């Protein structure tokens, strides 16, 4: 209230209170004997456009949910959100089928949920009613900060949209689809951010009209930014980039004296566990979290480096910090890269790879996989394997089982999306190990590989059921290579382009 922006903050506070009161979120009552009210506080935040300009001043009244007691004030808290993989697949399909993609935002989403439990809260600061100072707010609707708020909101939205003829996707419960005579519509929900896709503008208009009549919505028009990812549409399709986010992260860790780098990880360095004192452990965890968000959304090329470095979060050393600086230097040098999707190819292709005993100290191998659709990566992973493999073939087979598992999920997702339901074929997975291919198609079980027998049976089952097929690819053409080991500058460029990471024209 003492800042020069006080007028903007007051307006934001009044907007928030108007939403709460119009929603009839609480009623003033005397506190029943034996009950304890939870507190509340105001949270203030400036929201920015991706170009750094202030978008809005946001004031949020938040309940102190950390004081709630399980079994008394709340019971279940689980609420699903859409996977980022699902969001990328939708943009790839929008590029292939030339779909319209619009965006909507639910105003004060968590205020919509109905509460089943009795929760009492102190009156908010600055809005204590004269003459009723001793009364408390009995919450009728959920409020931000409550443990059960996300679950209650999702239940309310779920019930509303299903009543309009939409139905769930079988594998991602935050994807909803509806088929009409003239158009098909998909709605993707991530907490309060919403994507609406359709092959006809009428489908989008009708869906927006229904949602706006049910909830207080903000129509953001054609999609521009979703979850901090900038979306651009061109003649070829959609492109996703995180240039602004990367600039923010590099600026946050500028004290590391970041130098531009051409690769995300130095292949000559062998990182080991630190047995000495940890160096800025909390800041290291923050850096890993910041890099992980980029790696999970659009920057598949840093997945291996982030996966490797995250293993030392509990006790980082100076060497680990140097490697963090290297990843940031690579991102700084390549911040303009976008994950681009086009019309072709219109089928999902997968790549699987493993590097044998890549983890110093525990002798575990690394699994890597990537799936592409519409010329861009839609799903990827770089993970340390959980069991010791006795040979390269075994490591590759464990990786193939993990890739097959993801392929099955992707195929099930696509089979339940109206635009692709009738065109989903067997998912082709490329593998660079002839021995693994022979083992996958062999019906003979060798008792020497007992520890991977379940994976062997699982992969064979996927092949027999027509879910996946496996073909050989040379290591030089395997797009999963950068997910298992550090590569040279030229190979990083080639594999990045293969995954759709290019400069926007």
Structural class: alpha+beta
Helix content: 25-40%
N/C terminus separation: 46 Å
Which shape, going by the Cα principal axes?
Answer: globular
Low-confidence regions? none
Largest sheet: 6 strands, antiparallel
State mean pLDDT (0 to 100 scale): 89
Question: Strand order within the widest sheet?
Answer: 7-8-9-10-4-11
Per DSSP, the total helix count is 12
Work out the number of β strands. Answer: 21
Radius of gyration: 25 Å
Strand fraction equals: 15-25%
Domain Reverse transcriptase Ty1/copia-type: 23-264
Protein name: Reverse transcriptase Ty1/copia-type domain-containing protein
Organism: Vitis vinifera (Grape)
Please, could you describe this protein's structure?
The chain is an alpha+beta fold and 505 residues long. Helices cover 32% and strands 24% of the residues. It is built from 12 helices and 21 strands. It has a 6-stranded antiparallel beta sheet with strand order 7-8-9-10-4-11, sandwiched between helices. Strand 17 and strand 18 form a beta hairpin. Helix 6 packs antiparallel against helix 7.
Keywords:
RVT_2; alpha+beta; 505 residues; DNA/RNA_pol_sf; Reverse transcriptase Ty1/copia-type domain-containing protein; 24% strand
């Amino acid at each position: 209230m003492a800042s020069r922006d006080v007028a903007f903050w007051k307006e934001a506070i009044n907007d928030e209170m108007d939403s709460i009161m119009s929603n009839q979120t609480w009623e003033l009552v005397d506190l029943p004997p034996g009950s304890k009210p939870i507190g509340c506080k105001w949270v203030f935040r400036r929201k920015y456009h991706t170009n750094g300009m202030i978008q809005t001043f946001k004031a949020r009244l938040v309940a102190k949910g950390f004081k709630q007691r399980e079994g008394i004030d709340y019971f279940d808290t689980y609420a699903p959100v859409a996977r980022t993989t699902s969001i990328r697949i939708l943009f790839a399909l929008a590029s292939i089928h030339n779909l319209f993609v619009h965006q909507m935002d639910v105003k004060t989403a968590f205020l919509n949920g109905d509460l089943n439990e009795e929760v009492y809260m102190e009156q908010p600061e600055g809005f204590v009613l004269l003459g009723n100072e001793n009364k408390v707010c009995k919450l009728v609707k959920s409020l931000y900060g409550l443990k059960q708020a996300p679950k209650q909101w999702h239940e309310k939205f779920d019930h509303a949209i299903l009543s309009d003829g939409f139905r769930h996707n079988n594998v991602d419960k935050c994807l909803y689809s509806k088929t009409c005579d003239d158009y098909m519509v998909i709605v993707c929900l991530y907490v309060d951010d919403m994507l609406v896709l359709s092959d006809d503008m009428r489908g989008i208009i009708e869906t927006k009209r229904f949602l706006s009549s049910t909830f207080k919505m903000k129509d953001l028009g054609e999609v521009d930014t979703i979850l901090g990812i900038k979306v651009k549409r061109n003649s070829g399709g959609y492109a996703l980039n995180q240039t602004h986010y990367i600039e923010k992260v590099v600026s946050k860790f500028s004290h590391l004296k970041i130098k531009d780098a051409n690769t995300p990880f130095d292949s000559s360095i062998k990182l080991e566990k630190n047995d000495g004192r940890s160096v800025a452990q909390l800041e290291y965890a923050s850096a890993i979290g910041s890099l992980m968000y980029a790696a999970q959304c659009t920057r598949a090329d840093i997945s291996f480096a982030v996966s490797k470095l995250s293993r030392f979060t509990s006790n980082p050393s100076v060497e680990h910090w140097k490697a963090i600086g290297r990843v940031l230097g690579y991102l700084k040098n390549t911040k303009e890269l976008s994950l681009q999707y086009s019309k072709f190819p219109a089928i999902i292709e997968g790549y699987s790879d493993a590097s044998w005993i890549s983890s110093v100290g525990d002798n575990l191998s690394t699994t890597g996989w990537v799936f592409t659709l519409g010329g861009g990566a839609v799903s990827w992973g770089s993970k340390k394997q959980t069991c010791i493999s006795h040979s390269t073939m075994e490591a590759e087979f464990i990786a193939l089982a993990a890739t097959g598992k993801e392929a099955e999920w992707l195929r099930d997702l696509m089979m339940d999306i109206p635009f692709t339901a009738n065109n989903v074929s067997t998912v082709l997975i490329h593998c660079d190990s002839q021995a693994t291919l022979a083992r996958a198609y062999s019906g003979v079980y060798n008792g020497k590989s007992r520890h991977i027998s379940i994976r062997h049976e699982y992969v064979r089952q996927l092949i027999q059921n027509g879910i996946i097929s496996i073909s050989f690819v040379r290591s030089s053409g395997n797009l999963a290579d950068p997910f298992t080991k550090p590569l040279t500058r030229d190979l990083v460029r080639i594999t990045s382009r293969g995954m759709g990471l290019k400069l926007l024209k």
